[in-house]
Write a structure and sequence with these properties.
It is built from two helices and four strands. It has about 80 residues and is α+β, with helices and mostly antiparallel strands.
């Protein structure tokens, strides 16, 4: 299993809708709302690196309200 942490910036006012749409999405294990430089911290899990990349590209970055993301791959 491969895992990554993704920090997300959202457009103003889209926080609640974005959190609701991301929770329960396959491959997205946890969604935490933050205060500060980033709006969300998301834990992503997939079978391999390619699966994690696909989850981030197709199920996260394409969501309305997502402005930018930073991905950090978990090594251990």
């Amino acid at each position: 299993m491969e895992r990554a942490i993704v920090l997300v910036n959202l457009s103003p006012g889209s926080e609640e809708e974005s959190v609701a749409s991301l929770r329960g999405t396959p491959g997205i294990k946890s969604v935490y709302q933050l205060y500060g430089l980033y709006d969300l911290l998301i834990m992503v899990e997939g079978a391999d690196d390619q699966a994690v990349k696909s989850i981030i590209a197709e199920n996260l970055r394409s969501k309305p309200g997502v402005v930018s993301t930073i991905t950090m791959k978990i090594l251990l």
